[in-house]
Design a protein that fits this description.
Length: 792
């Protein structure tokens, strides 16, 4: 491979030499480097501010990746002297001006990089670089600078020391003036340090010190990422009592901060730091402020930390954090006078601490314009946190979903790591804990607590499952267990909660995602019915694509559950599809499509529509009219006439020791609402006890015939009513057997009988609740509302 851009792009090289010779004839080529394939020139740039011409010696160097990397302009203290062999006699010394866009190595940052819109790359010539440098030097003399970037990027002008993390507490509007701040080292990342013993820091607290001392403790902001900072060891009141000693390991670093009226200029040493503090110093000299703040640290501390809080370019608050290195110093030393202390301070080098904001707005910044802000108010329930569920949860957290509830019964094994977001360092941890930790590492403000995490099965209790999913805007199930997901499906249909199911198929070479909005989309049971019909040769919906699995794909069974081999790369496609559809739904619940089938390779034998690699078929599946899980009952609500309600309550309260009841007579309107006009009594030959009721069949038959004669079509059999000797009644197994039998019995002439149960509080003797259910034939029980019939 050739070693120089000059031989790769000779025409560019020739054009550069010609352009420079024409526009900057005074610039000379450094010949020794040219022989090595490097182009370096030096010369004097002249600018003409008011008052006369000023020359600035500079070096122009073309990087190895020219022409796709911009030429570098380096201001020099003087033009280099050349010896007899043509080499520089001395090392070149950069000239620093402590202004924006001069980097820590002295080079000028003259161009904002454009990496996307220019075809073939963003190419800059040496003439353009020198011309832009002239404008920079002219701004140095006149104060009239070229337009600047929207972002400050002030830290880039400093030699890098380490990183610090600031939570939203430090950007509050009510913090102002001067005080201390405290930083806890993240010792896990000590290897990232470039200064001795200085590793990335977490700023946990600060004080504001004026006539009174205000304390701002920010540990709660970040304790979900760093739970150990909640320890009393880092309590602000105790930190303030710690003396700084250079010869002992410090449990915490502390520094001093000041508010500035405007963004400061870059600086490289203590002298420059004092200059930027001048606007807040009484009398214009900031040294007394700094000397008083540091106290004894001035002479014995091996390093100092400073923070500058100033108005940001975005209208908010910005921070510059720096470290001053003082070298190893003895605790016992000579007593220096104030002048000597100041001179030593001004000579001390300054390093930049790269500030990272953990404000919610900054964490969401890269989603601006592509993810709706309303996502931060959404809550998602994750059922199953294996390879698919864990990655989908991570993607949704990054997209800005504001809250989660999560459930999984497994622990992370070493074998899981090949395709899970958890690492080997989390072996044996519950997957729900692994994912929760990961989500809070992404955004500590995402809402969930211990009550939102279940380490166990989602279906150990139907009531608990219903309660768990009830607050969700969307439920996502990736448990990949037909039995478990059938239970989830039924509970979600009852609760009217949307569920997005995701599953990898055929060793993750395919993946199915489907959305179930009860009453609108085919449910999990509907899809099972479609699959059964297709496999038996019966017609199935056109958009249903069956993908039979093979038992031979099972790698091993763990606790009776099959483990299927699959690549994390392929699973990532399916997890990404799950997250994409989830995000689309959360942004717009009215999306039309509800079924997605992805395939890694062409699968024409599965379906002729899967003819291309990495193809996703998108379709729509409507509910199966015969589905026992999601079919809508013929009766969705019930209204009671004034007479019927009165009779039910009076008959219930008149039978305080035993159950009573009868039949319901009325009609069902076109909106599937049952109107109960009459409620009969039990009849003289009814069987009644505290736990059982059986009506007088002959009596209620005569009542039905009488009502039919009087009311016509508005006087038909609707169902049964009876009392329970409890205040808040629910159907017993006997009740369920009875009504399901009535629904299936053709003689009753109803496919959806209703049951009303009145609940008697035996202590007060009063009816507390009257509740109703419908029992569609072949389906499940529906809890339906009771309303009073409006009076005419």
């Amino acid at each position: 491979m050739t070693s120089s851009w000059i031989t790769l792009y000779p025409q560019w090289y020739i054009g550069e030499r010609q352009g420079l010779a024409r526009h900057y004839p005074g610039f000379k080529v450094y010949e020794p480097e040219l022989e090595k394939g490097k182009l370096i020139l030096y010369g004097m740039l002249e600018v003409r501010p008011p008052g006369g011409t000023v020359g600035h010696p500079v070096l122009l160097e073309y990087p190895a990746s020219t022409p796709f990397e911009k030429p570098v302009v380096l201001p020099l203290k003087a033009l280099p002297a050349i010896d007899e062999q043509g080499n520089f006699k001395e090392l070149l010394e950069p000239e620093f001006f402590d202004h924006r866009h001069q980097m820590p190595n002295g080079a000028l940052c003259l161009f904002q990089r454009e990496t996307r819109t220019i075809v073939g790359g963003d190419v800059v010539t040496g003439v353009q670089a020198l011309s832009r440098a002239e404008r920079w030097f002219l701004g140095l003399h006149t104060g009239n600078w070229p337009p600047d970037s929207a972002a400050s990027e002030l830290e880039a002008h400093f030699k890098y020391a380490t990183d610090v993390l600031l939570s939203e507490t430090f950007f509050r509007d009510d913090i102002n003036g001067f005080g201390r701040f405290y930083m806890v080292p993240d010792l896990r990342r000590l290897q990232d340090s470039q200064l001795k013993d200085l590793c990335p820091m977490i700023v946990t607290a600060l004080t504001e010190e004026s006539l009174i001392v205000k304390m701002f403790d920010a540990r709660a902001d970040l304790s979900r990422i760093y739970p150990w900072i909640k320890s009393d060891l880092w309590d602000l009141s105790k930190l303030a009592e710690i003396d700084v000693k250079s010869d002992e390991q410090r449990p915490v670093e502390n520094g001093y901060w000041w508010s500035l009226p405007k963004e400061p200029r870059p600086f490289r040493d203590g002298r420059g730091f004092l200059e930027v503090l001048t606007p807040v110093a009484n009398g214009g000299d900031p040294w007394p402020l700094v000397s008083k703040a540091l106290g004894g640290e001035m002479t014995i501390g091996d390093r100092h930390f400073f923070g500058l809080r100033y108005p940001g370019r975005d209208g908010g608050i910005a921070w510059l954090m720096v470290a001053m290195s003082r070298g190893k110093r003895s605790v016992v030393g000579t007593i220096a006078d104030e002048k000597s202390k100041r001179e030593a301070f001004e000579r001390a080098p300054i390093y930049g601490l790269r500030v990272h904001s953990a404000r919610p707005s900054d964490l969401r910044l890269r989603n601006t314009g592509v993810v709706a802000e309303s996502i931060s108010q959404k809550r998602v329930v994750m059922l199953g946190l294996g390879a698919l569920g864990a990655e989908a949860a991570e993607l949704l957290a990054k997209a800005g979903v504001g809250g989660f509830r999560m459930c999984d019964m497994d622990r992370l094994s070493t074998g899981n790591v090949a395709r899970h977001v958890g690492g080997l360092n989390e072996f044996g941890a519950p997957k729900v804990r692994v994912v929760a930790t990961r989500i809070h590492e992404i955004n500590p403000y995402i809402k969930f607590d211990e009550s939102d995490l279940i380490f166990g099965t989602a279906v150990h209790s139907l009531e608990d499952l219903a309660e768990f999913i009830r607050p969700a805007d969307l439920v996502i199930s990736t448990v990949a267990d037909e039995s478990v997901e059938s239970v989830i499906n039924q509970v979600a249909v009852i609760e009217r909660k949307p569920v997005l199911y995701g599953r990898a198929l055929r060793r993750a070479s395919m993946g199915r995602v489907f959305l179930v909005r009860p009453g609108r989309d085919a449910c999990k049971a509907c899809l099972s019915a479609f699959a059964s019909r297709g496999r038996s040769g019966e017609p199935a919906p056109r958009d249903w694509i069956d993908v039979p699995e093979s038992e031979a794909d099972v790698l091993v069974h763990e606790c009776g559950r099959p483990v299927i081999p699959a690549s994390a790369v392929d699973l990532a496609f399916v997890a990404g599809l799950i997250a994409r559809v989830a995000l689309d739904y959360l942004e717009d619940p009215q999306i039309e499509r509800n079924h997605w089938l992805w395939s890694k390779r062409p699968e024409p034998l599965v379906d002729r529509r899967l003819t291309e690699p990495l193809e996703t078929f998108i379709g729509r599946l409507d509910p199966d009219e015969a589905c026992p899980a999601c079919q809508e009952p013929d009766v969705r609500a019930v209204t009671l006439s004034e007479d019927a309600r009165r009779d039910i309550i009076l008959m219930t309260e008149a039978s305080p020791k035993s159950e009573t009841g009868g039949v319901l007579i009325g009609y069902v309107d076109s909106e599937r609402r049952a109107h109960v006009i009459r409620a009969t009594g039990p009849g003289p030959n009814a069987e009644q006890s505290a736990y059982r009721f059986s009506r007088d069949v002959d009596f209620v038959q005569r009542e039905l015939e009488r009502s039919a004669g009087e009311l016509g079509e508005r006087g038909v059999y609707l169902g049964e009513w009876h009392s329970h000797l409890v205040a808040d009644p629910r159907p017993s197994t006997t009740d369920i057997d009875s009504l399901c039998g009535i629904a299936a019995e053709p003689n009753y002439l109803t496919r959806c009988p209703i049951m009303i149960i009145s609940g008697l509080d035996t202590k007060s003797g009063n009816v507390h609740h009257v509740r109703a259910w419908s029992f569609p034939v072949g389906g499940r029980i529906y809890d339906i509302e009771i309303e009073d019939e409006p009076t005419e």
